[in-house]
Amino acid sequence: MSARPQPLSRFHRWRSNVLQAPFFFLATGIFGSLSLFVSLFEKHGRLQHRIAQAWARVCIFISGSRLIVRGAENLRKYPVAVYAANHTSYMDTPVVFASLPFQFRILAKKELWPIPFIGWHLNRSGQIPIDVENPRASLSSLTAAAKALRAGMPLFVFPEGGRTPDGTLQPFLNGAAYLAIRAQVPLVPIALTGVYDLLPMHTHHFYPSQLTLTVGEPIPTTGRTLRQADELTQQLRSAIEALQKSLPVSG
Hints:
The chain is of the alpha/beta class and 251 residues long. It has helices at residues 10-39, 46-63, 92-99, 118-124, 135-150, 175-183, 195-198, 229-245, and strands spanning 66-70, 82-85, 105-109, 128-130, 155-157, 187-193, 210-215. Helix 4 links the parallel strand 3 and strand 4. Helix 5 (135-150) runs parallel beside helix 6. The two termini are 14 Å apart. The model has no long low-confidence stretch (mean pLDDT 86).
């Protein structure tokens, strides 16, 4: 469980307001513009994805944090899978793009699409918006996501549907399990730690911290039916919770 970060000193608050935040938005604008330009002539999205990876690494550097990936060998066990992680912060997305070494599509809340540069990139690069409050719209998004999986494109999902308000693991929606079962591909649990501490909800300051992305053993779905989506969702949540607890406690 993450604790609320301690108040920043004057120096760290100045650094966050004057240096880190402006450079973060500047990097987002530059890489977003580059991605939009590339999208005019690129069809497969590979170059756009590399741009997103570069943006993510620059953002983590600007935040003053260090990123460690544990269990990276589990990322390459299957060519196509559904990857699912706990959602702790707006910085989760840079951490994910900086860590996963292959092209994928992300299932993200539709509220991100109107945001300049970020939303434009999401739209032009083929990411999939989902409206968790509208079942019909969600079903349409899940259908598009399942189609991407069948075409050989891995997917990334935040099953909680939104950021945690306090750093604790929230209830999971069934979308990730539904997609994995429907496409009969593995479901890979991922635990993000330290990212909530870096940029908690309801703050605009960076609290530099140790970031860890831990990848668990893929959960097979071959032979499972959609009636088992609830069971698989609970299995996924338990796996992510176990990954969080497997980290050594820093003192």
